[in-house]
Write a structure and sequence with these properties.
4-stranded antiparallel beta sheet, 8 strands, 30% helix, globular
Length: 214
């Protein structure tokens, strides 16, 4: 039975990704990447096309210009940075299908064979990048009825509410028994216990409204 999940993620703070670095300085028209693996490492080779219509030509680091005309330049790069999403996602057996970069943000899609692999990919990236947002999930029509996907609208939360919810989860606040109490989580966030409780209550309400909506 087919159980694939087509996911689109947005990643911020992908340190060491040349395509991300270029997009912080120029308008990137397109990106293509490929992976070359050996028993020791996985090298990523990519090409970034930069549109000069809106940007002046900039001396870029970490990439080599391989083509240029009046309207665009193509830059090529190669790296073996194991923390780059372009390296991490294929290690889970999921080739990156589409990739866009803008102002340092990477937006890419891939097909995970199942929900467990999808969770592993997201968890892996969260441990290596500043932020990971699931923008879209599409399940195979024949996905087992015992599994389900839920899209949570990240934009429903303020940055503070999301940070409170994420930190509480990371520190085991919701575990039974609790691994951290409200004082410890509030201290980690640099806020008072009363403020922590207030933000957490609002965030949980918003989350439950999405979970329990038919």
């Amino acid at each position: 039975m087919v159980s694939g999940v087509h996911a689109q993620l947005e990643v911020r703070g992908a340190e060491g990704c040349p395509a991300s670095l270029v997009s912080e300085e120029c308008t990137v028209e397109s990106v293509t990447i490929s992976q070359h693996s050996t028993p020791e490492t996985t090298a990523v080779v990519g090409e970034v096309t930069v549109d000069h219509a809106d940007d002046e030509r900039t001396e870029l680091q970490h990439v080599d210009e391989v083509f240029a005309d009046d309207s665009k330049s193509v830059y090529r790069y190669s790296h073996s940075n194991g923390d780059c999403p372009c390296s991490r996602v294929p290690k889970h057996g999921c080739p990156i299908r589409e990739l866009r970069v803008d102002s340092g943000r990477l937006v890419f899609s891939f097909i995970a064979p199942n929900l467990e692999t999808l969770r592993e990919v997201v968890s892996d990236l969260q441990g290596r990048c500043a932020g990971v947002t699931v923008r879209r999930l599409t399940q195979s029509e024949s996905l087992d009825d015992t599994q389900s996907l839920l899209f949570v609208d990240r934009t429903a939360f303020t940055e503070r509410q999301y940070d409170v919810l994420r930190t509480a989860h990371r520190m085991g606040y919701f575990e039974s028994p609790k691994e951290s109490n409200s004082e410890a989580v509030a201290d980690a966030l640099g806020i008072s216990v009363a403020t922590f409780v207030e933000h957490l209550s609002v965030a949980q309400t918003k989350l439950l409204e999405q979970l329990l909506t038919d």
